[in-house]
Write a structure and sequence with these properties.
Structural class: alpha+beta
CATH architecture of the largest domain: Beta Barrel
Strand content: 25-35%
Order of helices and strands: HEEEEEEEEHEEHEEHE
Largest sheet: 6 strands, mixed, barrel
Number of helices: 4
CATH superfamily of the largest domain: RlpA-like domain
Number of domains: 2
Number of strands: 13
């Protein structure tokens, strides 16, 4: 077996063993001891790309493989923003090595992501209550369908998603230039400062309404066709939002409200069966 092949296999095994893997137990919490005081948000700063956890260049970009699936690591986090489901991991991995060979501390403000460069700083916003945290991505995962980020216990606790285990979130990367060498510099356009966490929302009527957008059309007839297809396929709650702020007017097909992650997961599965693979979470 060639040395390069052996190295690739070893690397993939290391990712699985070190990464959170997305296999968090329902009882994976803070343990029986006293919960330490929660830390402040991670403070974004330029860092060199880690030697570990960032894949191996296979000729068309750095890649790694987990559970028979290949992931391509982004060359840069610039412009990255995504909405989807966040999960969290705690005692099961506490004290283990992360994918970039740091020790995982469930009480630190860190996270795992499948394709962002390690390390990357991201802001995570809970779409249900508008609470935000800033975390440092230093691990790989979650390797579970329809999950975009795995948060440390501390970060999940601050976002108020511990009880449910998952939450609908928006993830936005902080961007820095990382030129050659190990002395990175701040980007020409610095990232926005971390947003302060929003106090807990106590009135259900004031909580953001979450919907899923499944198409935007300049012709209302096309939007009507999408709506009819959804209805005939048993997808309930679909409607057309007429966006007059756009020029010309756009007819956006949306489904909702989406009350929780379970509803979102079911909806995504139905949409994928219909060939709709790019649903987008919207709050209004």
């Amino acid at each position: 077996m060639r040395r390069s092949t052996v190295a690739a296999i070893v690397f993939a095994v290391a990712i699985v063993l070190a990464g959170c893997g997305g296999n968090r137990s329902k009882n994976d919490g803070p343990g029986s001891g006293r919960i330490p005081d929660l830390p402040g948000d991670a403070v974004p700063r330029p860092e060199p790309r880690s030697r570990y956890g960032n894949g191996r260049d296979m000729g068309d970009g750095p890649k790694y493989e987990v559970l028979n699936k290949t992931y391509t690591v982004m060359q840069s986090s610039t412009g990255y923003q995504e909405r989807g489901v966040a999960s969290w991991y705690g005692t099961k991995f506490h004290g283990n090595l992360t994918s970039n060979r740091e020790v995982y501390d469930m009480y630190s403000m860190t996270a795992a992501h499948k394709t962002l460069p390690l390390p990357t700083y991201v802001q995570v916003r809970n779409l249900s209550n508008n609470k935000t945290v800033v975390v440092r991505v230093n691990d790989r995962g979650p390797f579970v369908a329809n999950r975009i980020i795995d948060l440390s216990y501390a970060a999940a606790l601050k976002l108020d998603i511990i009880r449910d285990g998952t939450g609908l979130v928006e993830v936005t990367a902080y961007n820095f230039d990382a030129p050659q060498g190990d002395r990175p510099v701040r980007a020409t356009t610095p990232p926005k400062p971390p947003l302060a966490s929003t106090p807990a929302v106590t009135s259900p009527s004031s909580q953001p309404r979450i919907v899923v957008q499944v198409g935007a059309f300049g012709d209302r007839m096309n939007a009507e066709r999408r709506l009819a297809m959804l209805s005939q396929s048993g997808v309930s709650g679909a409607f057309i939002y007429e966006d007059t702020s756009a020029s010309p007017t756009l007819y956006r097909v949306r489904i909702g409200p989406v009350a929780d992650v379970a509803r979102y997961d079911q909806l995504v599965e139905k949409l994928e069966n219909l060939g709709i693979t790019d649903p987008y979470l919207i709050t209004d």
